[in-house]
Design brief:
The chain has 287 residues and is α+β, with helices and mostly antiparallel strands. It is 30% helix and 28% strand. The strands form 2 sheets. Strands 7, 8, 9, 10, 11, 12, 13, 14 and 15 form a 9-stranded mixed sheet that branches. Bound molecules: N-(5'-phosphopyridoxyl)-D-alanine.
Length: 287
C-alpha cells in the first residue's frame, strides 16, 4: 500500500496531476528510510533531515513530526517485507507552470515501501568497483532534493564503466558518491569529508562516525584530496540501502590490496550489531 495526500491505495491506482511541480521542475525533497523487522531505523534523524530539506527549499512541512512518525510506521505495517525501505517525497504541489513559487499550492505527499536488499555477502567479501567522476552538481548537495538528474548521470557513468558507484571529485577534493557518502582509510585512520554544502549529510555517515568514536577507531573529519583517495588503503561507501560497502577497485585499479580491508569488516560488524541493539531496545528508546 502506498500513501498519497491522505489516502492509502495500491500503487497501480495512484495518480498525480501532470502539473505537479515535482513532475515539471523536480521541485521537491525526499527521504529514504530503512526499516528492519518492522523498525524504522534512525527515524527521528531522517525526519529532522526532511525538515532541513523542506526549510532549505521553503516548502512548509505539511505534517507534524508525530504525524510523520505515525505515517512511516503505517507504511511499514502495510507492506509484507521483513526489511523494507520507505521512500517519501514532498513536492511544492500542483500549479500552472511558472518557475516562481505558486501562491496557495498544497504540497503533494507520496510515500511507498520497497523490499530492502542490503548488499549480498559476495559484495561485502569481494568489494565493489567504483570509478571517479567530476562532481558537476549544483552547490546545494546538502538538500535531499528530488532534482536528481545530475546524480542519475553520475550513477550511469559508473554503470557504463561496469562499476556500481561513482566517487565524485570537485576541485581536486573528494565530495561523496552519486547516492552515497564515501570514507577513506589511510594508515589505519578512517577519514571522511565534513558536512558542507558539497555533500548530503548522510544518516549512515553519522552512524559510522558515532561507531568509530564509540569504539575508539582513529577518525579524521577533514577534506580528502584526490591523491589520498587514489592511494587509499580502503574505500567504503555508505548509505541507508547499502549500509557500509567496501570498494575494491577504483577506475579499474585495486584499492589497497584489491579486497576489502580489516576496518571495513570491523565497521560492518559494528553496524550490524548496532542495528540489532536498536531493534531490541524498548520502543520509547529506539533511535
Ligand atoms: N541516497 N549522498 C547522496 C547523494 C545520497 O543520495 C545518499 C542516499 C547518501 C547517503 O545518505 P543516507 O546514509 O542518509 O542514506 C549520500 C538514497 C539512499 C537514495 O537516494 O536512494
Amino acid at each position: 500500500m502506498i500513501y498519497l495526500n491522505g489516502e492509502w491505495m495500491p500503487i497501480e491506482q495512484a495518480r498525480i496531476p501532470v502539473l505537479d511541480r515535482g513532475f515539471i521542475f523536480g521541485d521537491g525533497v525526499y527521504e529514504v528510510i530503512p526499516s528492519y523487522s518492522g523498525y524504522p531505523f534512525r527515524l527521528r534523524e531522517h525526519l529532522a533531515r526532511l525538515q532541513s530539506s523542506l526549510d532549505a527549499v521553503r516548502i512548509v512541512n505539511p505534517y507534524s513530526l508525530e504525524r510523520w512518525d505515525e505515517l512511516v510506521r503505517e507504511v511499514v505495517a502495510g507492506n509484507p517485507w521483513e526489511d523494507q525501505y520507505v521512500y517519501l517525497q514532498v513536492t511544492r504541489g500542483v500549479a500552472p507552470r511558472d518557475h516562481a513559487f505558486p501562491k496557495g499550492a498544497k504540497p503533494t505527499v507520496f510515500m511507498m515501501a520497497n523490499p530492502l536488499a542490503t548488499p549480498p555477502r559476495s559484495q561485502l567479501e569481494q568489494g565493489v568497483a567504483a570509478v571517479t567522476v567530476a562532481d558537476n552538481r549544483w552547490l546545494r548537495c546538502d538538500i535531499k532534493s528530488t532534482s536528481l538528474l545530475a546524480n542519475c548521470l553520475l550513477r550511469q557513468a559508473a554503470m557504463d564503466a561496469g562499476a556500481v558507484e561513482s566517487v565524485l571529485l570537485r576541485d581536486g577534493m573528494l565530495t561523496e558518491g552519486s547516492a552515497s557518502n564515501i570514507f577513506v582509510v589511510r594508515n589505519g585512520v578512517i577519514i571522511t569529508p565534513p558536512k558542507t554544502n558539497f555533500i548530503l549529510p548522510g544518516i549512515t555517515y553519522d552512524v559510522v562516525i558515532e561507531l568509530a568514536r564509540a569504539n575508539r577507531l582513529p577518525l579524521e573529519i577533514r577534506q580528502v584530496s584526490e591523491a589520498e583517495v587514489r592511494d587509499a588503503d580502503e574505500l567504503w561507501l555508505t548509505s541507508s540501502t547499502k549500509e557500509v560497502l567496501p570498494i575494491s577497485t577504483l577506475d579499474g585499479k585495486p584499492v589497497g590490496a584489491g579486497k576489502p580491508g580489516p576496518l571495513a569488516a570491523r565497521m560492518n560488524q559494528l553496524y550490524q550489531d548496532y542495528k540489532r541493539t536498536v531493534m531490541r531496545a524498548p520502543a520509547h528508546a529506539r533511535a
